[in-house]
Amino acid sequence: VAAQAVLNQILEIEPENITALNGLGYVLASSDKDLTRALMLSKRALDSSPDSAACLDTIGWVYFKLGLLKEAEGFLKKAQEKDSSSQEIAEHLRLLQDSIIDANAAGRLR
């Protein structure tokens, strides 16, 4: 909650701050709060920094949290291509792969 408040304050002063846009999108997604806003923020960050592994990971994570696994996979794989040493991206991909396996088994992959 404290991080969310600080990031909101930064965005009030600097509405296009990529770090704050991406950070708030990630915080919201990670806490399963306001995923629509998280997606909007992460899209704005990615538009401004399309080669950023962090921005690619965040939007992939938001799509994952929304249950849009195919969309999440594309962004998370791109993030890993940009930063193959990131443990966080690797963990997000692992969680995604587990969800894809579960969704395929249940016949409900979207």
Description:
The model has no long low-confidence stretch (mean pLDDT 95). With 110 residues, this protein is mainly α. The longest helix is centred in the last third of the chain and has 20 residues. The protein contains six helices and no strands. Helix 1 packs antiparallel against helix 2 and helix 4 packs antiparallel against helix 5. The protein is globular, with a radius of gyration of 14 Å.
Secondary structure topology:
Elements: H1 2-13, H2 18-30, H3 35-48, H4 53-65, H5 69-82, H6 87-106
List keywords for this structure.
about 110 residues; mainly alpha
Helix content: over 70%
Supply the number of helical segments: 6
Alpha-beta content class = mainly alpha
Average pLDDT, rounded to a whole number, is: 95
What proportion of the residues form beta strands (DSSP E)? Answer: under 5%
Order of helices and strands: HHHHHH
Q: What gap, in angstroms, lies between the N and C termini? A: 31 Å
The major sheet is characterized as: none
Global morphology: globular
Low-confidence stretches: none
Radius of gyration: 14 Å
Please provide the count of β strands: 0
